[in-house]
Amino acid sequence: MTYLFGFGLLVLAGAMVVLFAMLGELYARTGGMEGAGAPGGGSGAVRLLDGARVGSQPDGWPIGLAEVPASDLRVVLVLSTACDSCEQVAGQINDLPDLRDFAVLVSTIDQDRGVDFVTRHELSGLPHHIDVGGEWVAGELGVMTSPSALVFRHGRLVSALLFTDLAALSAAVFPVKEAVGNE
């Protein structure tokens, strides 16, 4: 009986990750981001993500993201191993001139796929967490879409954004960092 329950839970977690990735892809491909996720690139639009628990502070943090609550401002990139747009975004990360304000959360169906994603895109130098089943990000923050960017100030979610271009995301977020830092 315990094995059956465990297997059922594993199937449910896998379905959640696949749904998470499919929703992000569908939204981007249907023009929800003005074609930003369409093959061949897009407008680089950055939009607010509906459904995220903006203003909330997670009860607990995964070890890989433990430094996020101590940061003045930190952007956690939510990427999925089952998402083509996420693969493109992951390929852009190391092109940024300054990565110290970024962390990565990889939502995946199993640990090995997440480790492969982090290794393939050379993300191990960034604070990162492999979120099997997307359980932490969905449970703590209500986020089930990727690629998305979660902007935290001292561990509190202050913004959640949909994006497909890291340069556009940086241009949207970091002027805000200067304003927030001057409060």
Radius of gyration using CA atoms only:
16 Å
Strand order of the largest sheet: 1-6-5-2-3-4
Number of helices: 5
Low-confidence parts:
33-42
Tell me, briefly, the overall form.
globular
- Structural class assignment: alpha/beta
The total domain count is 1
What is the average per-residue confidence, as pLDDT, rounded to a whole number? Answer: 84
Q: How many β-strand stretches?
A: 6
The topology string of helices and strands comes to: HEEHEHEHEEH
Tell me the strand percentage band. 15-25%
Class, according to the CATH hierarchy? Alpha Beta
Largest beta-sheet details: 6 strands, mixed
Stated plainly, the CATH topology is called Glutaredoxin
CATH superfamily descriptor: Glutaredoxin
CATH architecture descriptor name: 3-Layer(aba) Sandwich
From the N-terminal CA to the C-terminal CA, the straight-line distance is 56 Å
The level of helicity is 25-40%
Organism: Micromonospora viridifaciens
Protein name: Thioredoxin domain-containing protein
Please provide a written account of the structure.
By secondary structure, the protein is α/β, with parallel strands linked by helices. The chain contains five helices and six strands; from the N terminus they run H-E-E-H-E-H-E-H-E-E-H. It has helices at 2-29, 84-93, 111-120, 135-141, 166-181; strands at residues 47-48, 74-80, 102-108, 128-132, 148-153, 156-162. Strand 2, helix 2 (84-93) and strand 3 form a beta-alpha-beta unit. The longest helix has 28 residues, at 2-29. This is Thioredoxin domain-containing protein.
